[in-house]
Specification:
By secondary structure, the chain is an alpha/beta fold. It has 13 helices and 14 strands. It has two domains: about 20-125 and about 230-335, Periplasmic binding protein-like II (D-Maltodextrin-Binding Protein, domain 2), CATH 3.40.190; about 130-225, D-Maltodextrin-Binding Protein, domain 2, CATH 3.40.190.10. Helix 5 (about 155-170) links the parallel strand 9 (about 150-155) and strand 10. The two termini are about 30 Å apart.
Length: about 350
């Protein structure tokens, strides 16, 4: 098609921006490779998502997202430096370059995506805000919480959701601001607040670590949408692709039945389902398209498993947290979990 003068002008004007964008995109990947490790921002301590185990090693659902990206970039899921960040410091740490990516139970919202200039690469856990109370308080519904004191994390969507819910239902409350997860547990267990509010998965995680979990109950109401996912800096399109498709690899692997136990065998010979071949790097050139090795996704799966393996290992029904898959089931099983095709 012949270019008009206007088209030529627009293309010429866009060229410097494209160069700038390419330079920005390449920066993080280059810096990560030069450092020889991924700097991943995680929760300062939330069982099931990011918490040190008995040996002092970080583990959890969000931690495995970090490990997946390191496996894609380095072929080594252990090439990660975990940097705990709070609800108030996480976005500053990402914007300043202190961390290369954020994987810390962070809700994807309009303002965080646009005003704060973050890029959310997907959703690794669908959640919603709930309320936990001591059973001794004698309430069975959040609609009975009028006049209570509520522990709430600062710098989170939780604060606004709390205010909106109580206002909409004509109730009053006294907020008890908290900064970290450890402080939240301390204040709640000491009786400094009647109610602890946060993501329902986080409440279940906290409850599982209490000395007497049965003394506390998570109320049935879910009062918000909290799509949690990893984020990178705005303008880092190449890096964004790597983090996004590392997450998608976990989801697609579950859908295709590829696991940490069978990935090597499936890659050893062509499969009838061509998407399995593309995922494992034995067909096509998807790895080259994002600047990593051909078998990058196979390395991820063999290192951390597929999404189901990650979920069940850290927060599933056979863990102290005991979460059902629910909306975090695959779309083929009635859930919301869905990845674009590998093709």
């Amino acid at each position: 098609m012949t270019q008009t003068k206007t088209t030529k002008y627009l293309l010429a004007a866009a060229a410097p921006l494209a160069v700038m964008a390419t330079g920005a995109a390449a920066a993080t990947l280059d810096e990560v490779r030069e450092a020889g490790k991924l700097k991943c921002g995680i929760h300062e301590g939330l069982a099931g998502f990011a918490a040190p185990n008995a040996e002092g090693q970080w583990e959890g659902l969000d931690v495995d997202i970090c490990r997946a990206v390191a496996a894609a970039v380095f072929g080594d899921s252990e090439a990660v430096e975990y940097i705990p960040v709070t609800g108030s410091t996480r976005f500053t740490a990402l914007a300043s370059g202190e961390i290369d990516m954020l994987a810390r139970t962070t809700t994807w919202t309009f303002s965080r995506d646009t005003d704060l200039k973050n890029e959310f690469v997907g959703i690794n856990f669908y959640d919603g805000q709930g309320f936990m109370v001591p059973t001794a308080l004698g309430v069975t519904s959040a609609l009975e919480l009028d006049g209570t004191t509520v522990c709430v994390n600062t710098g989170t969507t939780t604060e606004l959701n709390l205010a909106d819910y109580f206002s909409a239902n004509g109730m009053s409350y006294e907020p008890v601001p908290i900064e970290t997860g450890a402080e939240a547990q301390q204040q709640f267990l000491s009786g400094s607040c009647d109610v602890f509010t946060g993501d329902s998965s986080g409440l279940a995680a906290n409850r599982a670590t209490f000395p007497n979990p049965d003394d506390y109950v998570v109320l049935p109401e879910i009062v918000s949408k909290e799509p949690l996912g990893p984020a990178v800096r705005h303008g880092d399109s190449e890096w964004e692709d790597i983090v996004r498709w590392s997450l998608n690899a976990l989801i697609t692997a579950e859908e295709l039945g590829v696991t940490s136990a069978n990935a090597e065998a499936l890659a050893s010979e062509p499969q009838a389902n061509a998407e399995i071949n593309r995922l494992l790097g034995t067909e096509g050139d998807l790895g080259a398209m994002i600047g990593v090795e051909a078998d990058w996704a196979k390395t991820i799966i063999m290192s951390v498993g597929n999404y189901s393996e990650v979920f069940e290992r850290h927060v599933g029904v056979n863990t102290p947290i005991g979460l059902e898959r629910g909306v975090n089931a695959l779309w083929t099983q009635g859930g919301l979990l869905y990845s674009p095709p590998f093709r």
